């Protein structure tokens, strides 16, 4: 005998009172939504509605100025009881030419020896591109510092081309053994260095001397060779130690033109710092000049400001300070 299942409609299972309550709740919800909408619309018309959110304020970030290429602060150097440099501070901005001048014994070469790492100061800090650096030749070369010397410093047994190409060794990674054995990387590096050296010699107008030996060169040409050797490593800071020494007036004028062009080579950010006795040259090529006397900075400013400074005149002429 089978079982009969009776299905009751859902509407019959819900009590009538419950259905009425559900309907009234739905109607109340709809009415509330309508009333809320009308309230918001009326409030906006009356100017009392919720304020629109203000546009987000974008923060304005002012880019900081790039750090100086070189900054010296409080440099002091002593040789026994002799104070060669006392509390010397200066800045060399990127892309500028800064000159250091002063009478004999003022401390100019000592200052250069600190900057290139030949001397370690007894006090003070040296900063390159915003980073403190302990003065040492290998560290400063790695940071892009190159220098010419008062003397030429050329290798007499190498050709002009080989002398200039040798300057590129500080900027490539080929080891002595790699170059000596003629391994592929070393060979490619040497070829690239010789090509760059030939280009520099042509730019300096001395390409015809590429295969000559330094002892046979005119002195003005040898000076250009020394400068090309310093430039081939593409330094960010180039130190020129008395570049006009031993040159006549026409050669000095040509040298001045060359020095003024140095910062614009490459990306235009190279800085040049030079020590020079020739006042006319340093006044004509420098953006900023620092004057030393007895190891102290006695003046700093533009060429026009230095010309008008009575302390500078007194240091050079030995006269009394202007009243």
* The named CATH superfamily of the largest domain: P-loop containing nucleotide triphosphate hydrolases
- Uncertain segments of ≥5 residues (pLDDT<50)? 1-34, 43-63
Largest sheet composition: 6 strands, mixed
The CATH class label of the largest domain is: Alpha Beta
Number of helices: 12
What percent strand? Answer: 15-25%
Structural class: alpha/beta
SS elements, strand count: 10
Helix content: 25-40%
Please give the order of strands in the largest beta sheet.
6-7-8-3-9-10
The coarse overall form would be globular
Mean pLDDT: 79
Structural overview:
The protein is α/β, with parallel strands linked by helices and 323 residues long. It folds into two domains: 65-144 and 235-323, P-loop containing nucleotide triphosphate hydrolases (Rossmann fold), CATH 3.40.50; 156-234, no CATH class. The chain has twelve helices and ten strands. The chain has helices at residues 10-13, 16-45, 108-115, 137-142, 160-166, 176-180, 184-203, 219-231, 249-261, 279-285, 303-307, 310-317, and strands spanning 70-79, 82-92, 97-101, 123-128, 131-132, 145-147, 237-241, 271-275, 288-293, 296-301. A six-stranded mixed β-sheet has the order 6-7-8-3-9-10, with helices on both faces. Strands 2-1-4-5 form a four-stranded antiparallel β-sheet, covered by helices on one side. Helix 5 (160-166) crosses helix 7 (184-203) and helix 5 packs parallel to helix 8 (219-231). The protein starts with 9 loop residues before the first helix and ends in a 6-residue tail after the last helix.
């Amino acid at each position: 005998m089978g079982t009969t299942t009776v299905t009751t409609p859902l509407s019959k299972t819900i009590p009538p009172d419950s259905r009425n309550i559900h309907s009234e709740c739905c109607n109340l919800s709809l009415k509330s939504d309508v009333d809320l909408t009308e309230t918001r619309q009326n409030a906006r018309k009356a100017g009392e509605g919720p304020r629109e959110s203000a546009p987000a304020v974008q923060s304005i970030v002012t880019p900081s100025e790039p750090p100086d290429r070189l900054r010296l602060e409080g440099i002091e150097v002593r040789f026994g009881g002799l104070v060669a440099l006392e509390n010397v501070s200066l800045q060399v901005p990127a892309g500028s030419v800064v000159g250091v001048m002063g009478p004999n014994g003022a401390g100019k070469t000592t200052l250069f020896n600190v900057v290139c790492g030949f001397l370690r100061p007894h006090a003070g800090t040296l900063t390159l591109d915003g980073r403190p650096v302990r003065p040492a030749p290998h560290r400063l070369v790695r940071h892009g510092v190159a220098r010419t010397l008062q003397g030429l410093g050329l290798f007499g047994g190498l050709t002009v081309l080989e002398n200039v190409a040798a300057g590129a060794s500080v900027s490539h990674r080929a080891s002595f053994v790699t170059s000596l054995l003629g391994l592929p990387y070393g060979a490619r590096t040497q070829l690239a260095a010789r090509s760059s050296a030939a280009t520099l010699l042509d730019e300096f107008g001395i390409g015809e001397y590429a295969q000559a030996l330094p002892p046979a060169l005119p002195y003005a040409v040898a000076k250009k060779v020394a400068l090309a050797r310093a430039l081939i490593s593409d330094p960010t800071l180039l130190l020129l130690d008395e570049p006009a020494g031993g040159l006549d007036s026409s050669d000095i004028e040509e040298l001045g033109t060359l020095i003024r062009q140095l910062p614009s080579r490459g990306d235009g950010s190279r800085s040049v710092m030079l020590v020079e006795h020739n006042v006319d040259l340093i006044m004509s090529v420098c953006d900023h000049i620092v004057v030393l006397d007895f190891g102290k900075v006695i003046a700093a400013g533009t060429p026009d400001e230095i010309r008008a400074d009575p302390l500078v005149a007194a240091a050079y002429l030995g006269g009394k300070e202007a009243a």
